[in-house]
């Protein structure tokens, strides 16, 4: 989809369409809605491009710790395309493309765009990947994953957040994201094994069910550490023979991974 350059080459068709639409009262409403949509899309397009530049600057600045100085073409394209302003409340729409986390209700946050990009990058997904996300939240990270993977399975423990993310993702046309309301500590066994697993809430330890549901050769990216204190973004690599290697990448601050039934 080309944003900001609406249909210039289809002038004749557009003129006929406009004539028909302007003649009907319903058409006037539709035309207004269409032009508002176009206008806001191009306005947000500039902001999104600026956000991506900041993400790339953060990637370069943290290369020493992360081992990645930039984004792969697929992740870059995903960051350039997902409309972050559609994942936040109307009251936050003007700051939707700032490179920082934002509240999404229920004490939860949509992650900082740099962290979303970095975590996606660190997964090193193969072609046609099936990926699991724990912590759907707003659905933004799931949407980014939807651009780089074939199927995205996302588990959210808070039903109202999960349901509204599901509705939002459908409305935006993300047909390859599947949302389940459950305790993500246990992963999503029916669809395992996964080519990558991403946890977007901080866990005091790495949940063993997630390690089991990881394909040999695949990676799990998870913030590990105590709630409300500094955690470490950690990459676990499961080798072909099943051996796990872990690497601490960056200090981060995530909301805690909560447990159903108050389990630790
Ligand atoms: N990925 C989200 C941000 C998530 S914030 C986004 O892009 O917007 C962390 C999310 O993890 C919250 O929505 C929280 O409710 C959810 N969460 C916390 N513990 C969980 C658990 N055990 N299982 C599934 N989701 C969990």
UniProtKB/TrEMBL annotation:
The gene is pcm. One of its GO terms (biological process) is methylation. It comes from the Bacteria. This is Protein-L-isoaspartate O-methyltransferase. InterPro entries: PCMT, SAM-dependent_MTases_sf. Keywords: Cytoplasm, Membrane, Methyltransferase, S-adenosyl-L-methionine, Transferase, Transmembrane, Transmembrane helix. It catalyses: [protein]-L-isoaspartate + S-adenosyl-L-methionine = [protein]-L-isoaspartate alpha-methyl ester + S-adenosyl-L-homocysteine. Pfam families: PCMT (PF01135).
């Amino acid at each position: 989809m080309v944003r900001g350059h609406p249909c210039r080459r289809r002038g004749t068709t557009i003129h006929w369409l406009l004539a028909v639409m302007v003649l009907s009262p319903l058409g006037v409403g539709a035309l207004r809605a269409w032009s508002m949509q176009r206008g806001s899309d191009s306005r947000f397009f500039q902001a999104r491009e600026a956000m991506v530049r900041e993400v790339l600057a953060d990637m370069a600045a943290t290369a020493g710790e992360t081992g990645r100085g930039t984004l792969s073409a697929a992740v870059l394209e995903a960051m350039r395309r997902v409309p972050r302003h559609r994942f936040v409340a109307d009251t936050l729409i003007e700051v939707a493309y700032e490179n920082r986390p934002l509240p999404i209700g229920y004490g939860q946050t949509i992650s900082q765009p740099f962290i979303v990009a970095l975590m996606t990058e660190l997964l090193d997904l193969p072609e046609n990947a099936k990926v699991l996300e724990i912590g759907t939240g707003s659905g933004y990270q799931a949407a980014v994953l939807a651009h780089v993977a074939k199927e995205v399975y996302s588990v959210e423990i808070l039903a109202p957040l999960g349901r509204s993310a599901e509705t939002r993702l459908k409305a935006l046309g993300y047909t390859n994201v599947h949302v389940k309301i459950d305790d993500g500590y246990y992963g999503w066994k029916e669809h395992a094994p996964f080519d990558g697993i991403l946890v977007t809430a901080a866990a005091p330890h790495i949940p063993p069910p997630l390690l089991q549901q990881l394909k040999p050769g695949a990676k799990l990216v998870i913030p590990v550490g105590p709630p409300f204190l500094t955690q470490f973004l950690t990459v676990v690599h499961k080798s072909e023979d099943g051996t796990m290697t872990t690497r601490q990448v960056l200090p981060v601050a995530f909301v805690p991974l909560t447990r159903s039934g108050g389990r630790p």
